[in-house]
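User: Reviewer 2 asked us to show a designed sequence for the structure in our supplementary figure. I'm pasting the C-alpha cells here. Could you produce the per-position amino acids so we can include them in the response letter?
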C-alpha cells in the first residue's frame, strides 16, 4: 500500500517532543536522519548519539489528511513546528530500496562483486603480466575473472564502503590457495566468500548479529561454497588458529580484541584489520605489535587498513 510521508527539520532541538506529537497524530513509522554531512562514526558503548542537525521523516496511512496532521502537530508544538513537506510514496520493499544502485564492482586485478545474477556489461580483463622467470620479456595470460554473487539482505557488506574495498583488494592480491580463513565480523559474508572463491581451503564467518549469520549462509549457498564455510555467532565460536584472520569492524573493538584476534592467527599467518579512520590506524596498530610485524598502513578515502604477519611468539 502507498504511504503519505511527512518530512521536516528539527535542527539541534530535542527530537523527542516532535516524535511524540507525530505518533499522537497517527504516524505509523518515524525515522531520524542526518540533515547535513556529520556522520556519527563510532558511538561510545551504551550511548545513542544524534547528529548536530536532525531531520525527521514520518509515514502515515495513504488516506491521512495533511491538513488534519498539521493542525494536530501545531496544537502540540505551536511555534516550534517548522515548515512541513508532504509527499505520497508508492509501496515497494523499502529495506531493499538502496540496492537499486548496486552494480558489479572490480577489486584488484580479477575479483568482481556482483548483485546476484548480474555481470559487468563490459568485462575489464586483468593486464598481462611479465613472467618473473623470463626477466620480463615473456608475458603470462591475463588472470581469469572471479565473480562473487552477493545479496547482502539486511546485513552490512557490499564492497561499496572503502574499508570493505581495502580488504577485498588485499584478498585479491594474497596467496590464499589451501589457506584457512576467519572473517571476524562477517556481515554479509563478503570477505570469507571472496577468500574461498580466490582459493582458500576453508573459512569461518563470525558475527555478533544473527541476521549476519543468516545472510552469510545464504550468500555462501548462492556462490556454491557453503560446504567450505562455517558460520556462527561470536558466542558460539570455538575456532582453531587460521592462516588468515580478517576483521573489518571499528577501532575500539579492534583495540579491545587485540589479544583475542592475535590468538586466532597461526605463527607466520596474516591479520587484516579495517573499519578504521586514517587517524586511528597508528593507535590501533600499536596494540598488535606485540604479536605482529605490521606493514605500512593502506589508506582509501580517509579509511585505513592494517596488515600484519604473526610472529613466532609475542614480544
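Assistant: Here is a per-position design you can include in the supplement:
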Amino acid at each position: 500500500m502507498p504511504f503519505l510521508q511527512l518530512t521536516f527539520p528539527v535542527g539541534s532541538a530535542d527530537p523527542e517532543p516532535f516524535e511524540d506529537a507525530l505518533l499522537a497524530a497517527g504516524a505509523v513509522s518515524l525515522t531520524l536522519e542526518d540533515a547535513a554531512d556529520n556522520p556519527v562514526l563510532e558511538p561510545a558503548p551504551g550511548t545513542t548519539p544524534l547528529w548536530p542537525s536532525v531531520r525527521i521523516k514520518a509515514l502515515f496511512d495513504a488516506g491521512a489528511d495533511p491538513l488534519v496532521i498539521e493542525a494536530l502537530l501545531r496544537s502540540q508544538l505551536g511555534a516550534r513546528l517548522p515548515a512541513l513537506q508532504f509527499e505520497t510514496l508508492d509501496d515497494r520493499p523499502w529495506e531493499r530500496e538502496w540496492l537499486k544502485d548496486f552494480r558489479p564492482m572490480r577489486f584488484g586485478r580479477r575479483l568482481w562483486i556482483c548483485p546476484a545474477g548480474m555481470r559487468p556489461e563490459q568485462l575489464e580483463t586483468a593486464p598481462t603480466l611479465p613472467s618473473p622467470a623470463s626477466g620480463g620479456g615473456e608475458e603470462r595470460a591475463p588472470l581469469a575473472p572471479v565473480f562473487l554473487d552477493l545479496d547482502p539482505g539486511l546485513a552490512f557488506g557490499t564492497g561499496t564502503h572503502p574499508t570493505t574495498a581495502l580488504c577485498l583488494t588485499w584478498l585479491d592480491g594474497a596467496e590464499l590457495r589451501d589457506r584457512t580463513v576467519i572473517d571476524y565480523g562477517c556481515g554479509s559474508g563478503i570477505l570469507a566468500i571472496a577468500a574461498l572463491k580466490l582459493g582458500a581451503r576453508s573459512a569461518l564467518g563470525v558475527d555478533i548479529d544473527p541476521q549476519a549469520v543468516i545472510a552469510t549462509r545464504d550468500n555462501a549457498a548462492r556462490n556454491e561454497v557453503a560446504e567450505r564455510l562455517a558460520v556462527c555467532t561470536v558466542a558460539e565460536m570455538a575456532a582453531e588458529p587460521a592462516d588468515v584472520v580478517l576483521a573489518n569492524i571499528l577501532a575500539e573493538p579492534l583495540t579491545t580484541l587485540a589479544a583475542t584476534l592475535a590468538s586466532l592467527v597461526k605463527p607466520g599467518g596474516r591479520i587484516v584489520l579495517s573499519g578504521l579512520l586514517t587517524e586511528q590506524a597508528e593507535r590501533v596498530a600499536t596494540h598488535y605489535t606485540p604479536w605482529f610485524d605490521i606493514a605500512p598502513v593502506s589508506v582509501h578515502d580517509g579509511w585505513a587498513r592494517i596488515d600484519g604477519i604473526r610472529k613466532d611468539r609475542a614480544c
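For the response letter, you might also mention the following. The chain is about 25% helix and 30% strand. The first helix runs from residue 16 to 24.
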